[in-house]
């Protein structure tokens, strides 16, 4: 591993701003392998519910969840963690998580020296070496609590065993689906949380489900519609919900967005407690959907890459049992359908 770390130090010296994920790709390894090669990274025992439940004493931290095109960062207290089997939740005003431990395999406590001082974090990875979730200490965090946590869950160094990524399952042809029956069941749904099990019963992907949706329940908009949506949400102070993540973690922001900036291919929200970084060049499809909820329709903007992987989903702020906000519906209605946009 020391040879890999030496190669990384050479690369980092030539590109100081290079992120760990990008550096790992440049070196031909997974991010998990790169972190494991760090002499300052301490392996953690895979007692994930206990580790996550022990984060509350750290105080204010930054929680980061990402996929290959979207980075979702929130700053707040990591509390109220609970599990039923391998599925967990952490519901807080800022750090709001849905946790799926089926995909968690490796964890490390990491100390990095930066121009601004020592950066301390906890980093978790799946069986392929992809980052699932990270927790970074802030200036307001309790360093002693962090040290106690890492000592409590420390594990001896061992050989890192990773599995090659599996190829995504191919979609069955749309023609193989009984569209009338599918649409009829769609209309019978009465809880937005039942939508994923509904798709699973039909063995269709989320994007394919939108293609098969009843008329007026799902339609494509331009891939850059998300920028228009975020800018108008900021201008009108419309509170929204932003879901992003991967197979092991979904992280949620609820509230207003204010500072929307574009830097190259990255669309960013740069607010005090919430940052979003979205690679717009990797958005292949954008869909507006209307799903039956517990109190009327629940509308969203959903983004996918070329392979149909979900990148991020946007809702209006909404409490269970309440209808969605009319100002959110208005914002979505201002996004022209793809066909209309292309003609224009």
Automatic annotation (TrEMBL):
Q: Where are the transmembrane segments?
A: none
Show the InterPro entries listed in the entry: Heme_Transport_Util_sf (IPR053733), HemS/ChuX_dom (IPR007845)
- Signal peptide location in the record? none
Q: Could you tell me the superkingdom of the organism this chain comes from?
A: Bacteria
Haemin-degrading HemS/ChuX domain boundaries: 28-153, 203-335
GO BP, sorted A to Z:
iron ion transport
- What name does this protein carry? Hemin-degrading factor
């Amino acid at each position: 591993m020391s040879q890999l770390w030496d190669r990384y130090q050479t690369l980092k010296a030539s590109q100081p701003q290079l992120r760990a994920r990008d550096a790992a790709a440049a070196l031909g390894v997974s991010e998990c392998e790169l972190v494991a090669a760090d002499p300052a990274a301490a392996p953690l025992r895979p007692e994930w519910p206990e580790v996550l439940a022990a984060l509350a004493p750290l105080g204010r931290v930054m929680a980061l969840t990402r996929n290959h095109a979207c980075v979702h960062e929130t700053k707040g207290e990591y509390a109220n963690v609970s599990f039923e089997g391998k599925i967990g939740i952490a519901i807080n005003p800022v750090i709001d998580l849905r946790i799926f431990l089926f995909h968690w395999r490796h964890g490390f406590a990491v100390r990095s020296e930066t121009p601004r001082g020592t950066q301390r974090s906890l980093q978790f990875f799946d069986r392929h070496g992809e980052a699932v979730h990270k927790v970074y200490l802030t200036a307001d965090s309790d360093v002693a609590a962090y040290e106690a946590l890492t000592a409590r869950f420390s594990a001896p160094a061992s050989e890192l065993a990773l599995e090659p990524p599996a190829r995504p399952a191919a979609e069955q042809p749309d023609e193989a689906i009984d569209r009338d029956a599918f649409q009829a069941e769609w209309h019978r749904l009465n809880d937005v949380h039942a939508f994923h099990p509904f798709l699973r019963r039909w063995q269709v992907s989320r994007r394919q489900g939108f293609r098969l949706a009843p008329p007026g329940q799902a339609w494509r908009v331009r891939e850059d519609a998300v920028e228009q949506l975020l800018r108008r949400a900021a201008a009108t102070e419309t509170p929204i919900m932003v879901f992003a993540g991967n197979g092991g973690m979904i992280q949620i922001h609820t509230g207003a967005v204010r500072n929307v900036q574009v830097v190259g291919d990255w669309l960013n929200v740069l607010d005090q407690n919430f940052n979003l970084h979205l690679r717009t060049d990797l958005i292949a499809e954008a869909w507006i959907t209307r799903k039956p909820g517990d109190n009327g329709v629940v509308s969203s903007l959903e983004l996918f890459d070329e392979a149909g992987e979900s990148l991020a989903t946007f809702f209006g702020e909404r409490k269970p049992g309440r209808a969605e906000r009319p100002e959110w519906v208005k914002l979505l209605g201002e996004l022209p359908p793809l066909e209309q946009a292309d003609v224009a």
